[in-house]
Amino acid sequence: MDDTARPPATMLTVRGRRLATLVRPGAGPPVVWLGGFRSDMRATKAEALDRWAARQGRAFVRFDYTGHGESDGAFAACTISDWLADAEGVVAALAPERPILVGSSMGGWIALLAAARVRPSGLVLIAPATDFTEALMWAQFPEAIRRQVMEDGVWQRESQYAPEPTPVTRALIEDGRRHLMLDRPIDPGCPVHILQGMADPDVPWAHAMRLVERLPETGVVVTLIKEGDHRLSGPADLDRLVAAVEGIAPRTA
């Protein structure tokens, strides 16, 4: 998007933290975007949903977690508990009427965790990184990296999505263990549609299937894209995302 056309963010204070938000007024249960680890609310998929919301007259809410995008705070000082509290606070303030939560990667885990308190009317999860701090980080780290995280408090992980490395902190790993979900049944109390690339190197499709096994027997749809990567941001992927949201949030009259 051309910077001159970028709508300015509105700052919302949640538990003493100033979070950047973008709200499109509209009808129907509000759709709320929950971004991924180190992503932001102006990413490609969120922009595609905003265009859909504009066409359909639907309410759409997006925000940056603490330490992400245009929000205040330091990324390395935050944990899953912080970002979950951000999401719950934004929903309570801006989308209290049983929203549809659309969570990408880490946002998928946040959406599932928030469901108990937020009571969404539907979930759309894109490459949901449920339990990623344990299953996709800690369990995959060699002993030398584990030792560095525990002794130094942080390890700088090279990222293919950003020029600077991502700090993986001991606090992030230890706090993540408070929120693990894949060891028990998960019932978000609403329909769920999962979009998952089978060529995703960051959240393997087998990991998404672990989540599917924990979800209820009914009300769950999974779309596997054989050539799909982690971003799922190509034109066909964006069409699938919009269709999944429309399937849970039918067009208003």
TrEMBL record:
Signal peptide (from-to)? none
Q: Which EC number applies?
A: 3.1.1.93, 3.1.2.22
Q: Name one Pfam family in it.
A: Abhydrolase_6
Q: Name one GO molecular function term.
A: hydrolase activity
Q: In the UniProt record, does the keyword Transit peptide occur? A: yes
Classification via InterPro entries:
AB_hydrolase_1, AB_hydrolase_fold, ABHD10_acyl-thioesterase
Question: Which keywords does this chain's UniProt record carry?
Answer: Hydrolase, Transit peptide
So what does this thing catalyse? Answer: mycophenolic acid O-acyl-beta-D-glucuronide + H2O = mycophenolate + D-glucuronate + H(+); S-hexadecanoyl-L-cysteinyl-[protein] + H2O = L-cysteinyl-[protein] + hexadecanoate + H(+)
| Function summary | Acts as an acyl-protein thioesterase that hydrolyzes fatty acids from acylated residues in proteins. Regulates the mitochondrial S-depalmitoylation of the nucleophilic active site residue of peroxiredoxin-5/PRDX5, a key antioxidant protein, therefore modulating mitochondrial antioxidant ability. Also catalyzes the deglucuronidation of mycophenolic acid acyl-glucuronide, an active metabolite of the immunosuppressant drug mycophenolate.
Q: Which PANTHER family match?
A: MYCOPHENOLIC ACID ACYL-GLUCURONIDE ESTERASE, MITOCHONDRIAL (PTHR16138), PALMITOYL-PROTEIN THIOESTERASE ABHD10, MITOCHONDRIAL (PTHR16138:SF7)
Q: What is this protein called?
A: Palmitoyl-protein thioesterase ABHD10, mitochondrial
Species name: Methylobacterium indicum
